[in-house]
Amino acid sequence: MPTEHIVRSYDEELRRLRDMAARMGGLAERQVADATRALVRRDTSLAAEVVQRDVQIDQLEREIEAFCVRLLALRQPMAADLRVIVAAMKLSNDLERIGDYAANAAKRAIVLASLPSIGSLNGFERMAHLVQENLKAAMDAFVNNDAEAAERVWAADEPVDAIYNGIFRELLTFMMEDPRNITAATHMLFIAKNLERIGDHTTNIAERIHYAVRGDSLPEDRPKADESAYAVVRPAGG
Amino acid sequence: MPTEHIVRSYDEELRRLRDMAARMGGLAERQVADATRALVRRDTSLAAEVVQRDVQIDQLEREIEAFCVRLLALRQPMAADLRVIVAAMKLSNDLERIGDYAANAAKRAIVLASLPSIGSLNGFERMAHLVQENLKAAMDAFVNNDAEAAERVWAADEPVDAIYNGIFRELLTFMMEDPRNITAATHMLFIAKNLERIGDHTTNIAERIHYAVRGDSLPEDRPKADESAYAVVRPAGG
């Protein structure tokens, strides 16, 4: 209904864009939560739901992009409004990737449910909880146009990296102890990596929101704690 | 020099945008090639160069975004021009991720150079060669505004996924044979995954170019062969 949009005020349209992005963010959060729950509870039907639901996120990304392109063409926005639209396009891209990582984790959760369980999944739950909280805070910052809140999210990824490093080392140890753990541990490694990358994309989103509100960029390097995953772990007998 | 840009013709500016994107694409290609060369030759100084050069890609992404925002504000482009600008913004994001994956692979190549080598790296070389070729073809399609060429790239990722699956299975077997292989094989698994994701981003780039030229989207599902990596590999003794 194009007429509807022409009569609608520009402010209303920008509000609608923020709402679409918030809805996409909420769905991405839910995907991360459900993928993790499916992993922990070995719930393959929940995992299958997550995999299927991924198309909804892809669809929202396309809707946001189409809406942004129309706003750009019809409203020819300037300054802050233009930045909000550019940020919405870019962060929808990050949310799409987050959805992709969650769906990938859910696929691996299905495989893992058919294998003997190894180790504790507490680290995964803590990581997922943190990235969800950050993602929610980031999307709230977008809806409220709050640069300081975005900056707090941007700086909050360090604990996520630290948990990832712990999981990485623990899984390598399990693999070395018993080769029968290797397949499961490999899938778990990739899930942990997916969660870590979801954290990175959340940081990107926070940067884009900060830029949208303030018009300037955050410093290039954010606090990070992921270097130890490049360290060498040796088997006990090595 | 803002005056320079005001007198410059709009067509020239769009040409410049394509050139910036092509330069960024060329740099991303080189990063993939050098990261792989560093891995194969166990060349840690080349790997360190790749890691350091990543900031250049990040810098180009910011320049492209700033240039696009200025074009949107000053030129208020419509239709096809608007789509080219949106595509440039989005594909610069994919190129930034590609650079990130290449730098991550280079970091792991440094670790691997300190570990005994396992297996052949032929698969990695073939994968890297394919993704580079596709990336080059995609960026050429952007410079030449060629939707058919973009569509060919979009459909060409299947062999990349197939090689990834082969590497995945081989590395799991190495891990099961000898726990001393586990650390090296894990880093190699992540490098293979990075190359596979570089292939995915190249596919995204091809989609964006197709959209820029034609204004419509490619079908949602492209040919893919990556499902067998979710299969269960069991140790000989399991």
Automatic annotation (TrEMBL), chains A, B:
Identify the main location.
Answer: cytoplasm
Checking Gene3D superfamilies in the record gives: Phosphate transport system protein phou homolog 2, domain 2
Task: Please tell me whether the keyword Cytoplasm is annotated for this protein.
Answer: yes
Signal peptide start and end residues: none
State whether keyword Phosphoprotein applies. no
Q: Which SUPFAM superfamilies match?
A: PhoU-like
Q: Which Gene Ontology cellular component terms are annotated?
A: cytoplasm
Query: Mind listing the UniProt keywords for this protein, alphabetically?
Result: Cytoplasm, Phosphate transport, Transport
Can you say what this protein is called? Answer: Phosphate-specific transport system accessory protein PhoU
| Protein species of origin | Neoroseomonas eburnea
Q: Which gene encodes it?
A: phoU
